[in-house]
Structure formats: structure tokens, C-alpha cells
Write a structure and sequence with these properties.
Layout (H helix, E strand, L loop, with lengths): L8 H4 L4 H6 L19 H45 L4 H30 L3 H17 L1 H8 L5 H9 L7 H17 L2 H15 L1 H12 L3 E6 L5 E6 L2 H16 L9 H28 L11 H17 L15 E2 L2 E2 L18 H7 L12 H15 L14 E2 L2 H5 L6 E3 L5 E2 L1 H10 L44 H11 L15 E4 L13 E4 L1 H8 L13
Antiparallel strand pairs: 1-2, 3-4, 5-6, 6-7, 8-9
Helix pairs in contact: 3-4, 3-5, 4-5, 5-6, 5-7, 6-8, 7-9, 8-9, 9-10, 11-15, 12-13, 12-14
């Protein structure tokens, strides 16, 4: 029987869903693995393939269960709807029945997800997201769904690809996505796939990308979420170019040897006390190992009260032995003078609270603030403290100028305004809509440095990126150095050429990487053909003799 316009899709379109799930394509014979660095890892690949097939079967079984529960409800509500049609009920009655029927189907689906979550010991939210991704893939991305069923792509890849359907895409875009995504997902890591999906959608629908940017910019905001151990997560949603500008500025300031960065008083006092405890612990253990205590005894200090107790006990023994306390090899500021530890509190009485070593202001005031002076903070900690100082105090403790740069690849047609193709960050992660990048360039016209590259806007290493990175006029990769280290201009050119660490699957941005000589210097020269960008981890592995597979053909 035909249906009228009031008939909801949830009533008339559900009988074939379980058939789709079961007939979407059974797992094929096990394929050959990709080229492996170590043949002995084939057993790991086989275990991964088996896990993928098991995951696919589990998801298909989940879909069958949910379909079976909703199909039963669909049959019941369809019978009610057809009964009203046979009695020639009014349009309003049919509309109300259709609405109630859709609600009944959704309720049955929610109940099925609840029971499935119980069986899987997962949250209902997680099961719902799995169901939505699988349903989207099997109905709109059949090739992606087939690749998942055959174990060629992971469940995570399926969810990432299906997640792009949350954007309002054209039908032609979805078909292109279904055509290209499986092959890319099969040969690339999860992070690379996410970057590729972002670039793919922006390039296929540049106008839509600009419209989505405008809508997303209206949702910019700052949130704070409290975590454990007295810490919180500060999140800011902002335009990509703004965020990258802040990040580059923070990292440049944090890495500067001379840039003084104020310590956070809430943290500095703890660092100060911890450093003093460690110094005294080393001194006490050194004293005991010198023969004043039994072998094997160690001191582990917990708080300032124990420090005072241990130091005074040691001083008393030294006095009893008529030793000169000043000859004990203590660290500066923690030596013994006249039998009392300098800068340490006296042991409190039985009813007294232990006193802290320093106030917050005292601790923050005497800790070194520059790397040259021995700042104990790492780069990330310095960047965060600088960020805090900027927000709370409006600046840092001195006026040292810090120069930073952000690398973006902009198609020539976009610059001329004849195209809205997006710009891509040189690491391939960020996509900036064409109209937005033109606006940004107009605002920053006095702060730009141009390097013309013979590329199509794709980051290096991608399938669409050409291997020739020469400039149309001046070859920015032609710089040579007689020394070991490349000049700044060549370093910048290499960062643009490689984008990220060239080790296969690594996505560390080039500006955070080392410049590596493919043929070690001085046997290999310091020029572009013999240089590549490697993160510190892969640089160490290469130096240790391990083969580093490169995703950048020219550098390899």
C-alpha cells in the first residue's frame, strides 16, 4: 500500500535495515600486510586484522539487534497508520498518528541502545555514537562501510569519515568522499586521516567552508573545567590564525634564554620547598654514607617539619663529635652553622603546627626567571606561566622583543580573489577559508614575509602534493652552508617543504623539530637535498641506526 505525505520515513523505511546490515559484505580473505619495517611484526599485523574483523562483526551484530527492535515497533505503528487510512481518517488524525509513530520508533531505538550498552559495558552515549556512525556509513558511504567490513580500515577511521557527514555537504561531495576516503584511511594514521578529511572538505566545498567559518566564529567562547589535584582546564574556542599566533608567541618567549617569565606564586612556593627538601635529602644521605650511620640507610623527606627534625638531629651529632659543621659538604643555603640549619624552621613543639619555609611571594621572588639563570621550568611550563602573566598582569617583567612567524600555504588564485580555495597551515592540520585568509593578509600586510612555492597548496607528503618545491623565480631551497647548521632562511624553507617530521606517520610540526643531515655532516653537505625535518624522537632513532621511513619522497 502506498503512503501519503504524512507517513513518516521511520514507519515506511525500516524493514530492509537489518538486511542491509547482514548483507553489507562479509569479511574477505585476509589481505597481504603493507610493507613492514620488521618482518617479525607480521604477527602483530595479523592480530590487528583479526581485531578489526571482530570489531566489524560486533558492530554489525549491534546494528542487527537495534534494527530488529525498531522493526518490530515499525510494523506495529504501520498497522495502526494503515488502519486509519482504511477508515478514511482526517488529515489531522493521520498527521498525529505519524508523529506518535515516529516517537514510538525513537523510543524503541533508545531502549535497544540502553540494553546494548548494558551488554557491552559501555555508556549509552558511546553506543549511540557508534550506531550513528555505522548507520551513516552503510546508508551514505557504502565503499567506506565495505572497507570497514573487510578489515581494511579501523572502527576509528569509520567514525572519523562518517563524522564529516555532520556538515551540510552536497551529494557530489559525499560521493567523492566515499570514493577516496577508504584508500587514504587504509594507508595513513588516524591523525593524518583527520587532517586529510579537514582539507578535503574545505577544498571540495570552499564556499561552504567559508560559510561554516562564519557560523563557527559566532560560537567563540572561553570555558573552565575543574580537574583533579587542584588543576583546571582552560579552553578557548577562537579562529585558527589567532590561536596559532598565540601559540607561536608563547613558545618563542618560553624558549628565549633571556626572556624573564614570572613564576606563578601558587606554584612557586611548592617548587621552592621541593628543591630545598631535595638538596637537604642529598646532603643528609651523603653525610650518612660517609660512615656516620649504618650502610644502606636512606632518608626520604616528606615535609618541612621532618626537614627541621632531621637537620637538627644531624647538627646535634656533629656537635657531640666536636666536628666543624661548616666542613660538611652541604649545598649553598642549606649548610650547618653553629649547629642550626640556615633557612630551615626549628622543629615545632608537640602542639605547634609545622611552619612553611617561605611565603608565596618570597618563593616567587627568588626563583630564577630566565633559562640563562637556571629556570627549573620546562618550555611548556614557562609558556603557561607567561600566558597566565599576560592575562592577569598584562605583560612580562621586561620588554624583550620576540619575533615569531606562522607558515601558511595560500593558492595564488585565492590571493588574487579569483578563487575561494582555502589556505593550509604548513603542517597540514589547519584549514583557513579563502575569504578569511584574504582579510587577515590585508590586516597584517606590514608583517608579512613572502616565499613563493611551486605547490598546489597541499602539505608535503600528501598524495596531491608535487615533489618539486622550487620557487618560480628564486629557489628558496638553493641556500648552502659551509658549516653544520643551516642559515635561518634555509631552515624556514625546509619547514615549509616538509611541514612536519618526515618520519612516516609522525605529525610533529616542523618548527618543533630538528634539522637532520640525511648523510651525516661533514660527509654530507648542509643543503636542502641532504636535509630533512625530524622530531627529536625520530632523530635519536635515526642516529642510533634505525631506518626511518620517510613520507617525503624528495628528502628520502
Amino acid at each position: 500500500m502506498g503512503t501519503d505525505e504524512n507517513s513518516p520515513s521511520g514507519i515506511t523505511g525500516g524493514d530492509d535495515q537489518s538486511e542491509k546490515a547482514s548483507g553489507a559484505g562479509a569479511a574477505s580473505d585476509q589481505p597481504e600486510p603493507p610493507e613492514l619495517r620488521d618482518p617479525k611484526t607480521r604477527v602483530i599485523w595479523e592480530a590487528e586484522y583479526a581485531a578489526r574483523i571482530a570489531e566489524a562483526n560486533k558492530l554489525v551484530t549491534l546494528m542487527k539487534y537495534i534494527d530488529s527492535q525498531t522493526d518490530e515497533t515499525r510494523r506495529e505503528v504501520r498497522a495502526d497508520y494503515e488502519s486509519l487510512q482504511a477508515r478514511e481518517a482526517s488529515p489531522e488524525a493521520l498527521r498525529l498518528c505519524a508523529q506518535q509513530s515516529e516517537n514510538a520508533v525513537r523510543t524503541a531505538e533508545d531502549a535497544a541502545i540502553m540494553c546494548a550498552a548494558d551488554a557491552l559495558n559501555l555508556s549509552e552515549h558511546h553506543v549511540t555514537s557508534l550506531h550513528i556512525a555505522a548507520e551513516s556509513a552503510r546508508t551514505q558511504l557504502p565503499k567506506v562501510w565495505q572497507a570497514f567490513r573487510e578489515g581494511r580500515i579501523t572502527c576509528g577511521a569509520l567514525r572519523s569519515i562518517a563524522g564529516t557527514l555532520n556538515k551540510p555537504l552536497k551529494e557530489g561531495t559525499i560521493e567523492k568522499l566515499d570514493e577516496k576516503a577508504p584508500a587514504y584511511a587504509e594507508t595513513h594514521r588516524p591523525g593524518q586521516l583527520n587532517d586529510w578529511l579537514r582539507r578535503f572538505i574545505a577544498k571540495v566545498e570552499p564556499i561552504g567552508a567559508a560559510e561554516r567559518f562564519t557560523r563557527a566564529a559566532k560560537e567563540r567562547h572561553v570555558t573552565v573545567r575543574d580537574l583533579d589535584d587542584g588543576m583546571s582546564l582552560l579552553t578557548a574556542i577562537m579562529p585558527t590564525m589567532t590561536a596559532h599566533s598565540i601559540q607561536q608567541k608563547l613558545e618563542a618567549v618560553a624558549r628565549s634564554p633571556q626572556q624573564a617569565i614570572p613564576h606563578n606564586p601558587l606554584i612557586a612556593t611548592q617548587i621552592d620547598q621541593q628543591e630545598q627538601r631535595l638538596e637537604l635529602t642529598r646532603a643528609l644521605n651523603q653525610w650518612m654514607h660517609a660512615g656516620r650511620r649504618s650502610e644502606g640507610s636512606e632518608v626520604t623527606l616528606i615535609d618541612s617539619w621532618e626537614i627541621g627534625q632531621a637537620a637538627q638531629h644531624m647538627a646535634q651529632e656533629l656537635q657531640e663529635e666536636n666536628l666543624n659543621a661548616q666542613q660538611v659538604p652541604f649545598a649553598d643555603g642549606l649548610h650547618i652553622t653553629d649547629g642550626a640549619p640556615i633557612g630551615l624552621p626549628e622543629a615545632p613543639g608537640p602542639n605547634e603546627r609545622p611552619r612553611e619555609m617561605n611565603t608565596d611571594a618570597q618563593a616567587a621572588g627568588h626563583l630564577p626567571e630566565t633559562r640563562a639563570d637556571g629556570d627549573p621550568r620546562n618550555i611548556s611550563q614557562r609558556a603557561l606561566d607567561m600566558f597566565t602573566a599576560w592575562l592577569l598582569d598584562g605583560g612580562s617583567s621586561n620588554g624583550i622583543e620576540i619575533e615569531t612567524h606562522i607558515g601558511i600555504l595560500v593558492p595564488e588564485a585565492t590571493l588574487k580573489g579569483t578563487s575561494d580555495q582555502p589556505a593550509i597551515s604548513r603542517d597540514g592540520r589547519a584549514v583557513i577559508p579563502g575569504p578569511h585568509i584574504r582579510d587577515m593578509l590585508r590586516i597584517q600586510h606590514d608583517n608579512l614575509k613572502w616565499c613563493e612555492l611551486g605547490t598546489n597548496g597541499e602539505p608535503p607528503g600528501s598524495a596531491e602534493s608535487p615533489s618539486d618545491a622550487k620557487a618560480h623565480g628564486e629557489d628558496i631551497l638553493s641556500y648552502h652552508s659551509v658549516g653544520r647548521y643551516p642559515p635561518p632562511r634555509l631552515r624556514t624553507a625546509l619547514q615549509f617543504r616538509d611541514g612536519v617530521c618526515v618520519a612516516d606517520g609522525c605529525r610533529t610540526p616542523a618548527e618543533r623539530c630538528d634539522i637532520d643531515h640525511i648523510v651525516p655532516w661533514p660527509h654530507g653537505g648542509t643543503h636542502a637535498e641532504n636535509l630533512q625535518v625530524l622530531c627529536r624522537r625520530h632523530h635519536r632513532l635515526k642516529t642510533a641506526g634505525y631506518d626511518i621511513k620517510s613520507h617525503y619522497t624528495q628528502a628520502a
